[in-house]
Amino acid sequence: MGWLFDSPMTFTQYVQQAQSDAVGASVGPLAQGARSGVMLLVIPSTVAGLALAVFGLGLQSEKPRAAWGALSVSAGLTVVMFFSGYLLWSGGAGVGWLVLHGVVLVVSLVLTGFCVPALVQILHDPPPPGLQSVTDAELAEMGVVPDDLLAAKTSATEREVARRKARIVAEQRRLDELERRLDQRKNPPND
Fold it and tell me: For residue 171, how far is the Cα from the chain centroid?
């Protein structure tokens, strides 16, 4: 994306850039600051984004380990983003990469800021043990699920069961009638 904002180059400049890239490749990745910065911007932010999505699901179910994981991933991403920023700025990266880096850095700082209170809350008020095995009726008793929602769910289920039972009874009657007719054909009545 950074190339969108870079100035156009002539063929000679491209050749010189390719030659300097070949020389820089033999020196090491840190000698190529902008490229290493882009690598440290893209790969860790992608992996950390996926990890934070997983830890976010764990936080929804109030898992203490998920809070620790989210905090460690967001803090690690922030540290990597600072190092990536150093490489991008010192390596002369394009404006697009610098703007993208700034956005990812701000997002990682905000996420770290959100993870700290989430961890503190879970540590001070841990979820009760066995919360995952709560039934709908227990949730209604606790006031978590409204009674009318539970009643609608139950009545819809009961209606579906009654409808299926009626269909089975009608099908059984039809089968009984067909068996009676078959028996009459095999054994006609003697009058």
Answer: 46
